[in-house]
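Late entry, written up from scratch paper. The run itself happened at the end of the previous shift, but nothing got recorded in the book at the time, so transcribing now.
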Amino acid sequence: MLFTSAVLLLAFEAAVSSAKPIKSRTPTRVSLRQSQPLSRGALPLAKRSLRSISRRQSGTSAVALLEEDAGFWYGNFTVGEAENLSLLIDTGSSDAAVNPGLYKPTPASQNLHKNGSLRYSTTQENGCGTADIAYTEFVDTISFAGLTSKKQTFGNINPTPQPNNSTITQFPHQGLVGFAGIDSSEIGATPFFTNLCNQNAVSACRFGLALGTDNTGSQYLGELDSSQFAGALTTAPILDQWELPGDVSVAGKTITTNQTIILDSGTANVIGPISAVQDLFDAAGIQGVTQTLSGCTKVLTGYYPCASPPTVGFKFPAGADGKVFDILGSAFEEADDGAGNCTAIVAGIDFGPGIWIVGQAWFQGKYVDHDVSGKTLGFADLK
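Output as recorded:
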């Protein structure tokens, strides 16, 4: 959903240093995408619904059930003494932050008296929009699924009016927790999951996302739960957390090779370079229309018959030995435009040559293993 300017810079740097660098990367960063903040009246409803979500903890691993809302996934966290906070799960950024008026400090809380702004792009459902979120740094405990990060630095969001309709100043639901690495941190703090690993709170420094097609999903912390997927796990080395080389395919045929793929659970759709997405649309029989939209200079949007979603996927590892994992047909629709026509979940926006932001629509129906220690991503189809 949100991804910070640091993420794209890392994509550039990682690609340059990899064995098969992607040429002419521009040192820009995208941010995690998000929807408009929920109204004050909607927050208690979100809180009540997440209270009913069960958690399982065993030894130093745990699993938490997640809930989807408007294309984004949320878990139930405790920050300080504030319980049952519905926070967005985001692999496209690294920082933790809580919306205004929600944080309740423990006696051990520290106000670091440091202020700053978290800046993101792709904050709207179509990939446009920006975020400028003012925060004050605090240190306190953050817990998730029974696992606690001690002395966790996070942003306590300061209330700020929106400067315009395309810029948001707080997160949807009640905040966000980033699961990327420290290099992507805008605050400059050790991320929540990295702290769990450093504090030996998990037996293995890895987590898995298993997002279903029925608005429910699970996050596995500190383990690889092979009981959740069919067949073997396909693994691929990463360039950085969570970026890796991959190929783009239509109906199993590779159309673009050796792209930098950023797997971002906090982005609702799939975004690629305009020229590459046009090639994809041509191969898939999707009608492409270039538009200038609020919060964007240029967007390539695709339209197709709702009854015939195309088969579009990504191959990992890149090259002949990789395996293609497709976007499910049920997840390919961003919007039903009526009269049997739909807007595709794939859009073209230029964030840098060869850079794709692959969001939760692609995650659906898959187990995606994020192995920090092994520096790999793993993929398999859910049972």
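Helices lie at 5-17, 42-51, 192-198, 274-284, 360-363.
(Scratch paper discarded after transcription.)
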